[in-house]
Design the sequence.
């Protein structure tokens, strides 16, 4: 079975039970088989993701340099082109923005939004490392991790319904913080909610598969995480505060390379050989 078919099968397994049980929302199975509690519908999550993205846009300078934007779009679009069609989001429906900020950070949120900080572009050494970051972020979205994170918060706080969170003007500051932290965007609000080990592992696995299938060298995923962990000394990259490194992350990514190299080579043979150039 090709990688794409495998991914597709996984997503169908995830999405079909979801589509049937949306009104009741509840337990679902994540793409790598974890049980997960999802209290919000994809439609609600898309609206919440878009709302949180607008918040970031309102508070962070947008990088307009065409070369830099071309680089990030080139990598992102190569990955998005390989998403299973049944996921229902066309590549061109994603909004991809570069933010002018030194923090080593990048994110993706439901509703088809990707943000990459210029600090992350300074950190990565090549297109493949950037693809591993963006692939990891897209995978958090596909596996509905922000829905799971928000649902956990909603279990313990009555004011956090999706309907309440979507009200723009009447939302209290604390509620706003809960939304942003569930989306992985809490740093600006002083609320950092790290992804769990299970979510990190799932985003690592799916993201590395996606990058190989898009024609990016999957060996660079381990290189990037190793570099990120060694940078910064006492002030590690902001990215690591929301994406904590499981101790075996580099080992896992290295082990999976054996399985992914044939997929990568097949992608290159099929003409999926991105040549995205970093420009300043
Ligand atoms: Zn992560």
Sequence:
């Amino acid at each position: 079975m090709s990688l794409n078919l495998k991914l597709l099968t996984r997503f169908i397994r995830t999405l079909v039970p979801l589509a049937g049980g949306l009104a009741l929302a509840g337990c679902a199975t994540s793409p790598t088989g974890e049980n997960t509690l999802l209290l919000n519908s994809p439609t609600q999550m898309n609206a919440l993701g878009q709302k949180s993205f607008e918040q970031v846009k309102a508070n962070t300078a947008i990088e307009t340099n065409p070369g830099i934007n071309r680089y990030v779009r080139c990598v992102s679009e190569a990955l998005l082109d390989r998403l299973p069609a049944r996921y229902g989001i066309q590549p061109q429906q994603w909004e991809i923005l570069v933010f002018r900020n030194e923090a080593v950070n990048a994110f993706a949120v439901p509703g088809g939004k990707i943000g990459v900080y210029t600090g992350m572009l300074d950190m990565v050494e090549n297109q493949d490392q950037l693809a591993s970051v963006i692939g990891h972020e897209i995978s958090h979205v596909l596996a509905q991790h922000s829905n799971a994170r928000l649902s956990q918060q909603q279990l313990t706080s009555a004011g956090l319904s999706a309907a309440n969170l979507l009200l723009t003007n009447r939302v209290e500051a604390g509620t706003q913080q809960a939304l942003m932290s569930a989306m992985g965007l809490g740093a600006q609000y002083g609320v950092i909610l790290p992804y769990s080990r299970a979510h990190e592992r799932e985003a690592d696995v799916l993201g590395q598969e996606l990058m190989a299938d898009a024609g990016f060298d999957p060996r660079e995923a381990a290189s990037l995480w190793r570099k990120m962990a060694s940078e910064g000394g006492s002030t590690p990259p902001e990215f690591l505060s929301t994406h904590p490194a499981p101790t075996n992350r580099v080992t896992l990514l290295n082990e999976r390379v054996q399985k992914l190299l044939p997929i990568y080579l097949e992608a290159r043979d099929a003409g999926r050989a991105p040549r995205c150039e970093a420009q300043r």
